[in-house]
Amino acid sequence: MVACAPLGSRAEPSPTSATPTLAPVSTAASPAAPATGAPGTAAPGSSVDFVLQEFALPRGQGPHDVAPAADGGVWYTAQLSGELGWLDPKTGATKAIRLGAGSAPHGVIVGPDGAPWITDGGLNAIVRVDPATSEVKRYLLPAERPNANLNTAAFDRDGTLWFTGQNGVFGRLDPRTGAMAVFDAPRGAGPYGIAACPDGNVYFASLAGSYVGRVVRETGGALVLAPPTANQGARRVWCDSKSRVWVSEWNAGQLARYDGAAWKEWKLPGARPMAYAVFVDDADVVWITEWGANALVRFDPATESFTVRPHSAPNANVRQLLGRPGEVWGALSGQDKLAVARAR
Question: In CATH, what number is assigned to the domain containing residue 141?
Answer without folding.
Answer: 2.130.10.10
